[in-house]
Each structure stands twice: as C-alpha cells, then as structure tokens.
UniProtKB/TrEMBL annotation:
Domain Aldehyde dehydrogenase, residue spans: 3-265
Protein name: Aldehyde dehydrogenase family protein
InterPro entries registered for this protein in UniProt: Ald_DH/histidinol_DH, Ald_DH_C, Ald_DH_N, Aldehyde_DH_dom, Aldehyde_DH_Superfamily
Provenance organism: Paractinoplanes lichenicola
Region described as Disordered: 447-475
Keywords assigned by UniProt, alphabetized: Oxidoreductase
Amino acid sequence: MSVLDAAAAAAPVLALLSPRDRASLLVAAAEALTEAADELVPLAIEETGLTEPRLRGEIKRTAVQLKLFAEVAAAGAYLAVRLDAADPDFVLGPRPDLRRYLVPLGPVLNFAASNFPFAFSVAGGDTASALAAGCPVVVKAHPGHPRLSDRTAEVLNSVLPAGALGVIHGQEEGVAALKDERITAAAFTGSLAGGQALAAIAAARPRPIPFYGELGSLNPVVVTPSALAERASSIASGFAASVSGSAGQLCTKPGLLFVPGSFDADSFEGVAPHRLLHAGIVDGYTRRRAEVLETPGVTVVVEGSVTSDGATPTLVETDLATLVKHRDTLLQEAFGPLSIVVRYTPGEPLGSVLTELVEGSLTAGVHVGSDEDSPWLHELVTSLQALAGRVLFNGWPTGVAVTPAMQHGGPFPATTNPTTTSVGTASIERFLRPVVYQDAPAALLPEPLRDDNPWNVPQHRSPAGESPNWGALNG
C-alpha cells in the first residue's frame, strides 16, 4: 500500500525534527486550512448537511488545535525528559547514569468521524496530536465526506513533508491498514460496535498495538431541587439547545436528564428539521427512537420526527423505577436529537443509582443552586466522577473546549482506554513511548538527553546524593 510505504519512510524524518521545526509545520498546516475555508466549507455542506456557521466554527477549532499542538511541540515538555545522575552512594547500591524521554511510536492510523468533518477527521485532533508527537498519520476517511477528506489532505500536504499525512478509503482498506505491521497505534471515533471490532483486531495482531477508541456516551445530567427552583426556564432552554444542536449528532449530547419534578419542554417545540449526516445514521436513529417510544412507562413529551430529509427533537419522560426496569432498552445511546427526562424524588440516593445503572460516559453534569452544599450532593458528585471523564457544573456537555486541561475520554464504553484523552494537550501522550539511555557516551545521546540541551527542552534532574533523604518530607 503506497500510503503506508510513504508513512513508514516519513517516520524517521519526523522523529528527528526539532521541536521548533515540528511546531512550524503545524502552524503552516493551520494557516493552509484557514486559507482554504471558502473552498472546503461548501464541499462539507454538500456532503454532510451541516450548516455553514457550524462548519466555519469547526474549521476555526481545527486550526486552533493545530496551533495549540505547535505550542506543545515547541515547548518540548511533552518529551518528559528525566536525568538521573550516576550515584555511587545510592542507598540501594550504585546507580548508573539514566536518561529517559519519550519518542514517537511511528505511523498512526486515524479512523475519521462522520459528525466532525474537520475537527475529528483528516485535520482533526488525532492528526494534530500525532504529528506533534512526531508520528506520520494515515487517515481512514469517513464515507460520509470522501471528497472533503481528499481535498483537506491535499491542502495540508502542500505544507507537510512527504508521507506525513495520507488518506485511504473503504472498510476493507481500513482493516488491512490496522493489521499492517507498519502501523503502530490507531485512533477511532464512531460506534460502539465498530470500535469494539477494530479494537479486537488491534489486540489480535502478532504485535498488538494501542487502540484509542471513542465509542458511545449517555452524558447524564442531574438537576437538583434548588437549581430547578432558581432557574427552571434557563435550564430547560439550555437543555433543548444542547440536545437539538447539530441534530443531536454529538458524542457529548445529554441523553439523560434527571429532574425532581415537572419539566417545561416548550423550548423543544418549533425547532426546525436538521438533516442527519448519512443514511446509516438515519436508519440507526429511526430504530433507536422507535425502541424508546415503545417502551412501557415512557411518556412522549415532544414527539419530533425523523425522515431522510431531516429530524426534529424527540423528548420523552419516565421515572426512576421504569429506567431501572427497562435499563437494557433505555440506557443505550441514541445518536440523534432524542433525550430522556427521568423524574426522581428529592433525597433518594441518586448517586448510588447512577453508579449502578449508567455505564462509562464522556461527561456527566449537575445543576446546583446558589451556595448549595449537602452530603447528598457530595455523594452525587463522587458518583458522577466515577462514571465520567469530565464533570460539569451548571452547564451543558456539548461544546468541548480545545485547551490544555480538557479531558475528552471516560470509562468504557465511552472509550476503550479511560486513562487518555482525545482533546487537549495530554492527547499527545497516546502516540509516544518511553526510552532510557543508561551510561551512554555523550556523543551518542539524542539532543533532549544531552547536558548542553541543544533543543532547550525542560529537563528534570535528580542529582547524586539525594536518596538518603527520601521520605524525610522536609517541605
């Protein structure tokens, strides 16, 4: 496969680039993408049905991601350099000179998402973080926007080194690439079934590779009695906007809202139909919506609709007992503009119920009253932390900030690896591995491990003579 040949050839070239040179490439990619927006956005509208404002915002987000990782690359802290000086008096016996840092894994396979044709696709966060790590990227394009994928790659390849970014199409081609020994890691955003199948392939290789899959999420949100009493109207309107935005085709859409009483659904009325991304999503959402509507004990609040031309929001209501009884039906993601309002009784142990019922999610949220504090609330927040990678207060999970502290990941089935993130600067760690040089001659040390530090990267040093004082805790 020529794309894989090119990626394998580019791997050592990218790995040897200095942090500054790598950063310059990412900035150039961001600028090229921004300059091509007027050409790319109409193509994205045609292939996905997403709106121009949404897509232009997404291009801006994607360019910001690339520039953020340029900053990460230039700083060099991601290399995590640790230098332990040789110590003949080390308390466990003589310690050799040890120098540790992180090196790029090699070519990364990125399975692009349908719902973010820029931010989680050819030029998206997985690509940006892998390139920042020094890894070439092979993108398995999503069939929902093939022409956009090719053109986006052409734009980026006008400024990137040969082989740094390639695109392949087709399910069989994607599976073949995942099995190829030249691929050293894979990232995926998509369905639970698809992600599990690909993760199994990655694990079954003669040399298994890390597979970072973002699969599915319910993103439960709890409204406390105090919050509902203070601002019921604004909570309702924010919920409606979060569920209906981009026709609910977001991995962070709130699929469950727990409220202690009645809920005003007026904000859901009158939302205009929005085209779903492709026929597969129309079919899947239609089936899932029918399952929810046909569940005993579920009341339709806003019926909504779904056709091949578009969907409007569907909102249903039930109680906690029904949710528990029909958990197998109701506690599955509906990828589209549908959400379930669950009534609960104030004071009941909602935190423990959520821990038992809801599987891992990307996010979990709680709306609280002014200065609200109680043992019940603390238990609830602890439970939300246990099931999600991001816990929100008085906000909605849609809209993932591109920033260093962001965590976009969570316990399975939200992701296949709960210790990593696909958004934020920590996502670079997925495509690096540690190497230690022991007692290496100075002339053979790579730049980040040298005492003269020609790349000027942060170095954490452990001088000789410290070990007898470990555990003294002298502040």
